[in-house]
């Protein structure tokens, strides 16, 4: 049985997490654009983006050289972006790197994107409840979802799998539309498997494996994923954005590759429209006519 102090701590934790989740809900129905520079951030803002993810220029080779512990963007780079735009700015950090996350929090960012593309500092999730800002966590299975929620994630996105030898930018900018749908399908299939385990009286085994209480596992099983879940991975086409929204995602993270399109301003505006009005087939057809379904970069 919990002590009064433990109950008070739990209630405070839940209240703080609810605030963080609410902050991430502001991005639902919109696009978050990945940027390197102030110029890119200003363009995204002008085109109607809901927010930004600020990233550095770390390469896959550097990740290998650094023992799979890449670096978050320079705090000065993040500050420069934030000083010039009004949009909420999210900073990208390595998976499990609590210190990187705290450095970014001290830079007054609005959130953290814990990214597989920057490598893994620690295979174990740190306690996101310790941060004052929301964390987006990458997932590829129901196990990941349960662990992320229990650790205090405020939003989720699919995990992107880069190819060996490619820069992280290239890996991220390769279209991963199928990965987005596979992740959703995998999670739904996993939930069915978990429910069968419960019927067979074997759900307790998952508690030990995941280090998550059965009660927390069942809550997600029965109530669904109540966190914002954003599509992510090489998304630069309006038709893809609309498709992923119709698949069940609540918003879209747009690749930095969008700035290499022939007309990035027009493309971002179209992505914003497609994400917001994904059920409007006539509009999506018009946007597809404007940009095609295969043209990518200049």
From TrEMBL:
Pathway the protein acts in: Cofactor biosynthesis; pyridoxal 5'-phosphate biosynthesis
GO molecular function, one term: pyridoxal 5'-phosphate synthase (glutamine hydrolysing) activity
Entry keyword annotation includes Lyase: yes
Top-level class of the enzyme under EC nomenclature: lyase
One GO process term, biological-process aspect: pyridoxine biosynthetic process
Keywords: Lyase, Pyridoxal phosphate, Schiff base
Enzyme Commission (EC) number: 4.3.3.6
Positions of the PdxS/SNZ N-terminal domain: 19-228
Gene3D superfamilies: Aldolase class I
Pfam families per UniProt: SOR_SNZ
UniProt xrefs under PANTHER family: PYRIDOXAL 5'-PHOSPHATE SYNTHASE SUBUNIT SNZ1-RELATED
Family: Belongs to the PdxS/SNZ family.
Protein name: pyridoxal 5'-phosphate synthase (glutamine hydrolyzing)
Organism expressing this protein natively: Coemansia javaensis
């Amino acid at each position: 049985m919990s002590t009064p102090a433990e109950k008070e701590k739990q209630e405070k934790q839940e209240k703080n997490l609810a605030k963080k989740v609410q902050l991430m809900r502001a991005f639902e129905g919109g696009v978050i654009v990945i940027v390197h520079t102030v110029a890119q951030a200003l363009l995204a803002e002008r085109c109607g983006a809901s927010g930004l993810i600020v990233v550095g220029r770390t390469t896959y080779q550097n990740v290998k050289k650094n023992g799979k512990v890449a670096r978050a963007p320079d705090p000065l780079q993040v500050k420069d972006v934030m000083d010039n735009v009004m949009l909420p700015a999210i900073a990208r950090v390595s998976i499990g790197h609590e210190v990187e996350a705290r450095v970014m929090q001290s830079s007054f960012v609005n959130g953290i994107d814990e990214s597989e593309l920057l490598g893994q500092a620690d295979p174990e999730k740190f306690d996101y409840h310790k941060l004052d800002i929301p964390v987006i966590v990458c997932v590829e299975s129901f196990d990941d979802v349960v662990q992320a929620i229990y650790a205090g994630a405020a939003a989720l996105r699919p995990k992107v799998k880069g190819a060996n030898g490619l820069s992280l930018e290239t890996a991220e900018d390769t279209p991963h539309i199928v990965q987005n749908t596979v992740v959703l399908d995998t999670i739904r299939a996993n939930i069915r498997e978990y429910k069968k385990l419960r019927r067979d009286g074997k759900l307790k085994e998952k508690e030990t494996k995941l280090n998550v209480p059965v009660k927390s596992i069942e809550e997600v099983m029965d109530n669904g994923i109540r966190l914002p879940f954003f599509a992510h991975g090489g998304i630069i086409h309006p038709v893809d954005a609309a498709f992923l929204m119709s698949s069940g995602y609540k918003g879209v993270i747009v690749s930095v590759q969008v700035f290499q399109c022939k007309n990035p301003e027009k493309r971002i505006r179209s992505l914003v429209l497609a994400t917001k009005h994904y059920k409007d087939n006539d509009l999506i057809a018009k946007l597809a006519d404007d940009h095609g379904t295969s043209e990518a970069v200049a």
